[in-house]
Amino acid sequence: MGSYGIDGNLNYEKLKENLDKVEGIVNVPDSITKESFPIEVYVDGYKVTIEKNGNVTVEDEKTSNIPKPKPTTIEQAREEGTVLDENNPTTIKDKYENKIIVPEGFKIASDSAGDATKGVVIEDVNHGDTAGSQFVWIPVGEIKGENGVIKTTELNRYTFATNGTPTAQGSNVIDGCQELVVSDRGNTTAKDLEGFKKSVSQNGGYYIGRYEAGDSSATTDRTNISTKTSIPVCKQGQYVYNFVEQPQAADLSRNMYKNQTFTSDLVNSYAWDTAILFIQEFSEDKDYSREKRLQKSLAKTGEAIDGIDVKCNIYDMAGNAFEWGTETVASYLTPCTVRDETYTSSRNYANYGNTSNVMYTNQYCTFRPILYL
Hints:
Blueprint: H1 12-20, E1 39-43, E2 46-50, E3 56-58, H2 74-80, E4 90-93, E5 99-102, E6 106-108, E7 121-124, E8 134-139, E9 141-144, E10 150-153, E11 158-160, E12 166-168, E13 177-178, H3 193-203, E14 205-209, E15 214-215, E16 232-233, H4 246-254, E17 263-266, H5 269-282, E18 310-311, E19 314-315, E20 322-324, E21 328-329, E22 336-339, E23 353-356, E24 365-366, E25 369-372
Parallel strand pairs: 20-24
Antiparallel strand pairs: 1-2, 2-3, 4-5, 6-7, 7-8, 8-14, 9-10, 11-12, 13-21, 14-25, 15-16, 17-25, 18-19, 20-22, 22-23
């Protein structure tokens, strides 16, 4: 009765609020709309059905087939080890009450950190060929940490001084590079940059691939572009998805997850730079943006032995291979951008940007997808 409005109709927001107050209730929806009905919840072992008009039916006998309560914390979700929700995003919190939104069909990885400052990892469970792919939550906004310390990170494009000090640049042209809505130079821009920004603002973060893209079908090192249409994955121990052109990297990233309530895309400069800022804020490397990881050879994803690079559960953003991005360069001859260090170079670093032509492809270039809701 307390869930009716003054207009005599059922108030969905008030109903949700009141259901959440019932001790021991199970299966309350994350949100209630007119499409949510009939709502089936369980109280003290009894199934209770709520109709759109407010009618309530309680089954006469208890049932043993009660759905498990949805996890509300990272620890609960990690221990459960199963997909959080097959059809809808799930909001959980870490031990400091930071919010993390997990896309449908994912679980919290068994080796995920327990709080957002150390790298919360989600793992694909229910999406077919990409199952096992892992992504790390990059929190944006106010982030709570140990001893009640609160730090604020802003989604932005950054330049970094040699000591790691960041300077926000927004939409400025940086070394000839900028994010365009559409490019006439042949490179592929972000799928929906404004949509990405809006999502991050509303949800308090986004996901970046834990690893460089791997080729799900490769059984040896890729040596040419002939396998360019294989399905990419973000899993450890895969052969690096190199020999791929920038437009192909963007297309492969976008097609990892189609027709979902979340979006996959090739990493843009806002996502890359903010991830670097996150690492510097919450790891021991306060100048990670200038980090160099020179190796003897190209390693499998997440397995670079010489100077292994893993910060906040994110691998190889300062080494192994160049990674394509969505920025556009003013030059019509070399409009594409790459970030990162390669295993052969000692002059580049984690936030280094280089340029290339649209058709450029070799063993040094790979890519990294992002996800946002």
